[in-house]
Amino acid sequence: MYELKDREWIFVFTGPDGSGRKTMADMVGSTFGMKKVISYSTRKPRPGERDGQDYHFISHEEFLKAEERGEFLETIRLDGNLYGIKHKDVEEMFKTSGCIYVIMNTEGAEILKRLYGDHVVRLFVYADRQTVEQRQRAMGLPEDVIARHMAHYDEAMQYMKQCEHQFENYDIAHTAFAITEVLEKYLQRDLKQTD
Hints:
The chain is of the alpha/beta class. It has one domain: Rossmann fold, CATH 3.40.50.300. It is built from eight helices and nine strands. The strands form two sheets. A five-stranded parallel beta sheet has the order 2-7-1-8-9, with helices on both faces. β5 (72-78) and β6 (81-86) form a beta hairpin. α1 (21-32) packs across α8 (172-187). It starts with 8 loop residues before the first strand and ends in an 8-residue tail after the last helix.
C-alpha cells in the first residue's frame, strides 16, 4: 500500500446515487487540476458513461482474477456487481500530484478512511429522496436500477454524520463554490485575493 506523505490528500466524494457527487467531483477536481482515480466495475455502462472516464468496465472474471492477484486497494460488492480501485493507480497519481479524488459509495469511502486515516477527506453530497430519484430518471436510468439505488438511500444518508464535510446539492454553482472553499483550506495554495 502506498504510504501517504504530509499534505497528500485523497478527497472522497460520496453520497446517495443521484446526489450529484460525480458532477461536483469532476467540476471541483478540474478547478484544482486534481487527478481522478477511476474505479473498476463489472456493471454495464449507464447512459452517457464512458469506459476509462467514468469507470474501467471489466468482466466479472477479469475483476476476480485481479482481486486474486491482490491488485485492488479496496473492493465492494453492490447489487451483484463488483467495484474497486487499484493500488497502482493511486501510487502512480501520487507520483505527480499531491492530492487525488475518487467518487465512491459510502462503503468504499469507509474502507479508504480506515486505510489512510486523516489523509482521507470525505465530502458527502446529498439531496432529498424525491430530487435524487428525479435526477436518475432524467439521466435515463431504467426503473429497476433506480429502485435498487433508492433502496440504499437511507443507509447512505446515515453515513453523512461520519463524513468530514456535508454539502446539500440543489444549485450546482453554489455547491461547487462551497466545496472549493473547503478544499482550499486543505490544499493551502496561498491564493491572493485581488480587487
